[in-house]
Amino acid sequence: MEIVPLSDAVGAEIRGVDLRESLSAKTFDQIEKAFHDFAIVLLRDQDITLEQQKIFALKFGELGSRNRPGTKPNELDEYGEHVMLVTNVRENGKPIGSLPDGEMTFHADTAYFEFPSKATMLYAMELPTWGGNTLFSNCYTAAEHLPENLKRRLDGQKAMQVYEYGTTLKTKERYDRKNFPHYAHPVFREHPASGRSALFVSELMTEEIIGIPKAESDEILQKLFTHQKKSQFVYEHEWRVGDLVMWDNRCTIHARTDFPRDQRRMLRRLTIQDNNPVVEGAVPYAQAAAE
User: Fold this and answer.
1) Number of structural domains found in the chain
2) Disulfide engineering: 40 pairs with which of 122, 170, 247, 249, CB 3.0-4.6 Å?
3) Which CATH number goes with the domain that contains 54?
4) How far is CA 254 from the centre of its chain?
5) Which residues are designated catalytic?
6) 68 in the Ramachandran plot: left (φ > 0), alpha (ψ -120 to 50) or beta?
7) H/E element, 140
8) What SS3 class is residue 145?
9) CA 78 → CA 69, 82, 249, 259, 280, distances in Å?
């Protein structure tokens, strides 16, 4: 097995692993270590069934539910509660999956719940001729490179995460929280495996910093969102059929670029549930002080 960094920002490709075969304990330990070290792992040229994808995902923990609040059993598709098709494929004019078209703003999956997803695993099945790339931002280094005065201002603060289902781009400054899932999490989040602090906000889902006047909160959030998009923190993944990418939802955010609406795009998504609360992280002074 070979582990090759994907960029200077974040991520690593794992070569020499076929997920159709049983993984030894040693091989899985190496993959898990790479996941914690690089936050994103890519395994290319995989030809796997849904069951084989599930077997791999379950090694990292319990599968997360993709059900939205209020989903009725008869509204689930043939894939059940754990599998989401991220696709623009339509039957009888209706999408057969979720998040069908267009670009998508930076976000962390299910940050609006008390227990956000630990990880997301996406497997590419059909792709357009261009676009539909996924951008990943390293929230460890984004936190470490914030100005010291901003780190101090955000020390101990929480940010409100809100999601209006069906939205891939923020269309309102505020959503009605009586109608939409929301939860306040620490701005700096400690990762349970690495002990490092990550900047846990995102442009799509973070609406305010609790306890800070609105004008100041809005100004700070815009600075944070712009900061997270800096090229030094971002890796852009150009998908190939057979790619399996798993990212750590606790220390990265991701976005999607536009792609042709008349070309098929289909990826199969599983998430790994986290049953532990989000823990406040220490303000990351050391890295910036050393530079």
Assistant:
1) 1
2) 247
3) 3.60.130.10
4) 5
5) 107, 109, 254, 269
6) beta
7) helix 139-144
8) coil
9) 19, 11, 26, 27, 39
